[in-house]
Write a structure and sequence with these properties.
Elements: H1 5-11, H2 17-51, H3 55-76, H4 79-87, E1 94-99, E2 106-109, H5 121-130, E3 139-144, H6 149-165, E4 170-173, E5 190-196, H7 205-223, E6 230-233, H8 239-248, E7 255-263, E8 269-279
Parallel strand pairs: 2-3, 2-6, 3-5, 4-5, 6-7
Antiparallel strand pairs: 1-8, 7-8
Length: 288
């Protein structure tokens, strides 16, 4: 994360010793001394002379009040976090990892390579939120690599037949020019956009981050879905694609999920569970 160059110059002598000396030491010291003298000495003497208020008691009261304000600001407000943001520091913390039981109206997922007899994490995510029309899922974005396209198309065709058997409309969108309909007009239908990724971008997390940001914007503009109604699954795809998706969803209102598995001694999966992850930090893109 990019730090504030002015703050660095004032607080770090190794960055700019002259700025650190003139501003960080002398400048701020003079300002602090001036305010202290004006508030505690001059005002205290004036109050004692004109109103009979004991100067020492007044000074102790002011110091106590300032101390209480500082303590309150640090422990009962988000002042500390704002100061970290100004200084260029940002706390990275996973605040919640719990089993995912509810469903979302929107899902962003990365299909994996299909293996015979194996269900991919993207399929599991879609079926969890869709639940044959009983779940809330109405919009799905699949960020697909060329090598995962064939298996993904086969799954979508299977899902389409299941929807048709239940007389539930199923729509796929393969080009950006095809817009999603608003959420208020789609009833129980399912809408899936296939977002193809060129091989050159597969290992570029920044490109994936920008793409996921774009999908969130598209969801709001076209379907009227805000970030709180969408969850992103980062289980599939390359490690760089996973990193890009997590970076895009670092804002607290963007939920993440992943498919967690436990393995036995023989290497076989013995237990699996969809987990929801809520992150508690924001990041800023660094200009190249």
């Amino acid at each position: 994360m990019q730090r504030n160059s002015l703050i660095e110059a004032i607080t770090d002598p190794s960055k700019n010793f002259l700025a650190f000396l003139l501003i960080g030491i002398f400048g701020l010291g003079i300002i602090s001394s001036g305010i202290s003298n004006l508030l505690l000495e001059t005002l205290g003497s004036w109050l004692q002379k004109n109103y009979g208020i004991n100067k020492v008691i007044f000074q102790l009261g002011i110091i106590s009040l300032i101390g209480l304000i500082i303590l309150f600001s640090v422990y009962f407000t988000n002042l500390a976090r704002r100061l970290k943001a100004v200084l260029g520091y940002e706390e990275i913390q996973v605040t919640s990892v719990v089993a995912l039981t509810n469903t979302f109206s929107g899902l962003i997922a990365i299909p994996s390579l299909g293996r015979h007899g194996k269900v991919t994490p993207a399929e599991i995510a879609i079926r969890h939120h869709w639940q044959q029309g009983r779940g809330r899922l109405r919009y799905c974005w699949l960020i697909c690599t060329p090598d995962a396209l064939s298996a993904t198309q086969q799954f979508l065709e299977q899902l389409k037949q299941e929807c048709l058997a239940q007389k539930i409309p199923f729509h796929t969108y393969n080009t950006p020019e095809q817009s999603f309909p608003p959420a208020a007009k789609i009833a129980a239908s399912l809408h899936v956009r296939l977002v193809m990724i060129e091989p050159k971008w597969v290992h570029d997390p920044n490109h994936i981050r920008q793409l996921v940001d774009q999908l969130y914007s598209e969801a709001k503009q076209q379907a009227g879905l805000t970030s709180e109604h969408i969850i992103a699954d980062y289980t599939g795809g390359t490690k760089s694609m996973t990193a890009g998706m997590v970076l895009a969803c670092s804002e607290p209102e963007r939920e993440l999920q992943y498919w967690a598995s436990q393995y036995g001694n023989d290497g076989e999966i013995v237990e699996s569970q969809l987990m929801k992850v809520t992150l508690a930090y924001r990041i800023k893109a660094v200009s190249p």
